[in-house]
Amino acid sequence: MDPLAQIATLVIQTVASIYLFFVVIRFLLQLARADFYNPISQAVVKATNPVLIPLRKIIPGLFGIDMAALVLAVIVGFVAIELNALAAAQTIINPARALFWAIIGVLKLATMIVFVGLIITIIVSWVAPYSSHPALTLLNQLMEPVRAPFARIIPPMGGLDLSPIFIFLTVQVIWILLDWAAMKVGLVGGLAQFVPGY
């Protein structure tokens, strides 16, 4: 790949990954019913509203799930994949294949957010358990729906909470399945660099 193509793919991938992160975070925050008035929530809303509000007129919610945000996340991934292919190889990827790649990228990013978010909440619970920083408050609200089902199945034993181990295990199982699905749809080797979130 020549330097101009590398620069183009770097810029496309960076911009798409940042915006995709905001869209996925917004979807997860709504799913978790997190505090809308938290300053970080407000920043995410401001970043995503210009595209999301018009899209909601076409794609309504379903059972309390913000389908417009999900569709927007897949669209961002899809457009980034095709732009990366154009920049790197002056061609486009089969749209059906690019759509599958985009969905896999969104799922991988969502599970990565859960994985990293859980690690942060565990560390903070040891070093600053009473912190009221808006970011940590929001992160705890985001992680609560993930932790709750596991905590019900695996209650703390002697003050030791083992449920995060099983959450990490579940996330890694999902990653294995996503990697298998990626291989089945041709997302292998260097092609992964075209997919935001993957």
From TrEMBL:
Originating species: Halioxenophilus aromaticivorans
Protein name (record): YggT family protein
UniProt GO cellular component terms: membrane
Pfam family for this entry, one: CCB3_YggT
Statement: the UniProt record of this protein carries the keyword Transmembrane helix: yes
Keywords: Membrane, Transmembrane, Transmembrane helix
InterPro entries: CCB3/YggT
Family classification: Belongs to the YggT family.
Domain of life: Bacteria
Keyword Membrane recorded: yes
Transmembrane annotation, as ranges: 7-29, 58-86, 98-128, 165-183
